[in-house]
Design brief:
With 244 residues, the protein is of the alpha+beta class. 49% of the residues lie in helices and 15% in strands.
Length: 244
């Protein structure tokens, strides 16, 4: 009897929660459609992540080192908390590949107007254009490599049309990778004026939130800040969090 009551109470609670979310989102469409869209996307992603939680094996991801740049889904957050898909820098010096979590500092781009007099808030560190230069160089190199491989694959098909299935699969892999690289190249254009490390928003996240790189074949693999930049980040973390 008690279990039936718990089941009924839980079902009522779920129905009320779903009804409240549904009403809020539909009311929001009229006054802030973009916000309604972002929340809806996040709810979809959040549900997918929760559903994947029991199946997730962090050892299937590559190992991350201090200074690595990764892209993570921070979700839809409250107020001025950083959210959405964001580049971030890994802060842990010895994160185990088996660890399900990782500590990062979100990265954002400097005002696209290039107004250097705007200034930065406490806990925001100007990293210059190092990230843009690294990513731009790698993306251009990857696009050239993909174009070269696609050209060779096209030649292989003309020579050995009987291997159509294998050639088609390889062609699709390189074409997909090229699209990912071109998307990254388009994203980083706004970083040309520089990047900011959000020391004031350091956070520990589940590795399920990592979008790129998950493997050594992904676009962001090998993108890591220099030792000089990491020393600068460490110095500013000390100043921001501790008496110095």
């Amino acid at each position: 009897m008690k279990s039936k009551k718990i089941g009924k109470d839980l079902e009522d609670h779920i129905n009320k929660a779903v009804s409240k979310i549904d009403k809020y989102l539909h009311d929001l469409i009229a006054i802030h459609p973009k916000k309604a869209e972002l929340i809806s996307y996040w709810m979809h992603d959040f549900t997918r992540m929760i559903d994947f939680e029991d199946k997730f094996k962090p050892t299937k991801n590559k190992r991350y080192k201090k200074g690595d740049v990764i892209k993570v889904n921070l979700g839809f957050n409250i107020g001025s908390e950083q959210g959405g898909l964001h580049y971030a820098v890994v802060l842990e010096k010895n994160n185990s590949q088996a660890s399900p979590v990782i500590t990062v500092a979100p990265l954002t781009s400097i005002d696209s107007s290039g107004n250097s007099n705007k200034g930065f808030r406490p806990g925001e560190l100007n990293l210059g254009d190092e990230l843009f230069q690294m990513l731009n160089k790698k993306c251009q190199s990857e696009i050239d490599r993909c174009n070269s491989c696609i050209e060779k694959i096209d030649g292989a098909y003309k020579t050995n049309p009987q291997n159509y299935k294998d050639i088609k699969r390889t062609f699709e892999e390189f074409s997909h990778h090229k699209k990912d690289v071109e998307k990254t190249l388009d994203e980083i254009r706004k970083m040309k004026t520089g990047s900011i490390c959000m020391i004031n928003q350091i956070t520990t996240i589940s590795k399920i939130r990592i979008y790129d790189p998950k493997t050594t074949r992904d676009v962001l693999h090998g993108i890591r800040f220099s030792d000089e930049t990491l020393d600068l980040i460490d110095e500013n973390i000390k100043k921001f969090f501790f008496k110095y």
